[in-house]
Fold UDP-N-acetylglucosamine 2-epimerase (Non-hydrolyzing).
Amino acid sequence: MDKLIDIVVGARPNFIKVAAIIRELRTKFPEPGNGIRYRLIHTSQHYDNKMSGVFFEELDIPQPDINLNVGHLKSTEQIATIISRYSRVLIESKPDMVIVLGDVNSTVACALATKKTYPDLPLIHVEAGLRCGDRQMPEEINRILTDSISDYFFTTSRRASDNLMNEGVSPGKIFFVGNTMIDTLYTNESRLKQPTFWNTLGLANKGYYVLTLHRQANISSGEILGTLLESVAMAAEGTTVVFPVHPHTEKMIHNFGIEVHPNIVMTDPMGYLEFNYLMKNALAVVTDSGGISEETTIMKVPCITLRDHTERPETCQLGTNLLVGSCNPGNIFDAFDCLRAGKWRMGKDPELWDGKAAERIVDFVAGILRSGKEDKHTIYTLRPKAFGDISYNTIFLN
Ligand code: UDP
């Protein structure tokens, strides 16, 4: 009988990451009877076409098997509702494993539902171990809680693996596999498409900036949000800034009555293929998104991050990302000056961000489910010394 994996998604960055894992599962386990089947659980934390549906279509993600339909609720209510609804699903039919991704409310809620319903059910966290050190950030709490009850940890960097070990996770449970968001980028690189507004806005390659903003620290105060938008508009010195606006941010701009400078062109949230085309051809991207700082690092596009810290330090140490602070106009102006002076460092790709993370994850998961034990040596050739002195596992496929 096939083993059943529940895979949980709920918000935009989850869809991008899961696309790579599902693609790999379809390749390796194309038909029933091959050993593994999965149920895609969508919490509908993000639910409309622009924040959810478009990604399923563009990235060939199958329709969810189960939709928890939580919709828009306050954070704690949303988490409570997801726990309650997913627990009911689990009680009705127990899977053999649950996979959660990233750091959104759906991640922590379904992790808790899993462990409270069946403490023995293996829980896997993809993109585990990321820490920015700021417990005021809601996503940091989601990361810490999810990791504290997960059984296996797939990480995007050695630093994330180290964070887990420092928190007492057994090294044998941690697997540095690379980055599924980058897998999806490589898979779709040749499919990226010019946005429909390209000509209307008179955009040209390397002739505009892209802006995204949705972190709570940047949008929950009218003063901070207004200052950030004004600073970016001024620092761009007349060059168009295209701003696909997250629904929460749009609501806050409206509630605070902020008048956005005409140099910033606001659009709806964009589909993946058009948005990544827009980033790839931009002079630079200004953002507070974690995922976007990873994609710009691989695309070699300068990234100015409007935050004080990052859980993805490799994007700054190796990649094209620069942290300028949550509300520091002086730094924003300096960053744009550096861009115009042509002094931005284009960097290099972080280790194992090679488009094969999902392959490593699926092989490992299949190994556990088949053998019923976690002995990695039955599944992999383990060469932990290949990239220097590390004490956790790095998975290399033969
Ligand atoms: N993204 C998109 N359209 C947009 C904005 C972002 O397709 O209008 C994609 C982006 O390329 C990346 C992901 O959404 O793959 C990042 O999601 P988000 O910034 O919402 O989440 P974070 O990474 O900050 O958790």
User: Anything to note?
Assistant: The CA atoms of residues 131 and 311 lie 5 Å apart. The first helix runs from residue 12 to 28.
